[in-house]
Amino acid sequence: MTRDNSQPLVMIKLGGSLLTDKDNESTANHLQVRRSLKQIRALVKAGSGRLILGHGVGSFAHIPAAKYQTARGIINKESRLGAGITKERVLAIHQLVLTAGLKLGLPLFSLSPGSFLSREEGSAKTYLTPLLNCLKFKLLPLLYGDVITDNLQGFGIYSTEKSFEIVAQALSRLGFEKIKLIHLGITKGVYDKAGKTILRLTRDNYAQYFEAVGESQSIDVTGGMKLKVETALRMAEFGVETYIVDGQTVDLVALLEGRTKRNEYTLITR
What we know:
270 residues; Carbamate kinase; eight-stranded mixed beta sheet; two-stranded antiparallel sheet; 10 helices; globular
């Protein structure tokens, strides 16, 4: 079975702010989980290309990750237990999303970034064969923000955005073309200081909006909107287009077909 690298590849992140109440620990928004997954199902039925799915962990894992400073690795006697607790909370929200998707008939295939991504000497190391096999056989890989191993500090955290960045760059080197990333959150894109949607962000115009792009208002160890934007700008350098949209109202099929009103999302490009 040959791989057609020219077929569109769409990476979709279901944000933690969308799926959970980020201010109340381990509280899921079940209605929004189901709505988001129905949108994914519509994409599958429309034949909108190959999909890689990911989700944030919201109030399930950011709170223990902040408490134990898991991103810093082994820093005290509680660090190892803290990493395990954080990972357990990650898996709790992951199981919820996975189960909901399977009930809707989506062929989701759980992939822990911590099992195929690691960090050595400060750089990402990858083993992408499981992911490539999912794409080859039309499974829907489901990733998430995860605790990963680190040969210098023991472990750390890769946000879903970071995992997507690493994966997209590796796939682009393998010849994959037309890669798009869609962030489903709770805002109509990125807002300027006046609260209006920024229609397009690039490396050239980001400086004028920098102060308006803030951190998350809730506990978020991975950086909130600023992380999304700055990761997307790096990804644009190797050809990835990123859409930041309101997952509460978006029609994903319409978005990819160019039928969504332009003031409903922010597009981040080279």
